[in-house]
Amino acid sequence: YDAHWEENGSSWATREEYQSFRDTTEGEIYGRWAPASYMIAIVMRRQAGPRRFPEWEEAAAVACAVQNMHIQACDKFGELACYWSSWHDDARDSAEMREFLDMGDEDRCMGFFVVAHAKNPEFVPRRSRDRSLMAVDWRP
After folding, report:
1. Are 114 and 85 in contact (CB under 8 A)?
2. pLDDT at 81
3. Among the listed residues 57, 54, 59, the one whose alpha carbon sits nearest the alpha carbon of residue 44
4. Measured at the alpha carbon of residue 40, what is the angle toward residues 106 and 72, in degrees to the nearest 5?
């Protein structure tokens, strides 16, 4: 990006705007993202062939898979802290990222699942969920 920021169709009008973005991003990488043990790319690979599911169904399936990873991580390993980051769209949607992740033309990178060791594994939220909000009313 540094060598070709003007050619990438970016939203920065000047070198100073780009450099400000770059400095902020670098600060996040070394500050916010440095404690991450793993960053797992979340990629929706489109089905091949004449009969395909709609794109929204494939995106929903990916989201359910990520939610299942999050539930498993939190349930089985209390010392882990995880979240889904949509990341920076300029980086996430770049040709370089597509190549790095070996993505096809219709595939989409939906972000990254970030996994780290929790700073305070014994953390208890100040507020708990109202169980009545989780109730299901089954009707015939």
Report:
1. yes
2. 84
3. 59
4. 115
Alpha-carbon distance values, 126 to 108, 115, 123 (Å): 37, 23, 9
Distance (Å, whole) CA 15 – CA 3:
11
Position 109 pLDDT exceeds 80: yes
Structure tokens given for 110 = 């939906």
Question: What's phi and psi for 13, nearest 5 deg?
Answer: -85, -30
pLDDT tens digits, residue range 4-63?
A: 666 665 677 787 888 888 888 787 777 777 788 888 999 999 988 888 899 999 999 999
SS3 of the chain: helix, strand, coil, percent, to 5: 40, 20, 45
Give the separation between CA 27 and CA 29, rounded to whole angstroms: 5
Residue 25 backbone phi and psi in degrees, to 5? -65, -45
Residue range 68-87, pLDDT digits in tens: 998 888 777 778 888 899 88
Residue 50 — φ and ψ, nearest 5°?
Answer: -75, -30
Contacts 24+ apart (CB under 8 A), 55-60: 59/108, 59/110
What residue has token string 């089954």? 138
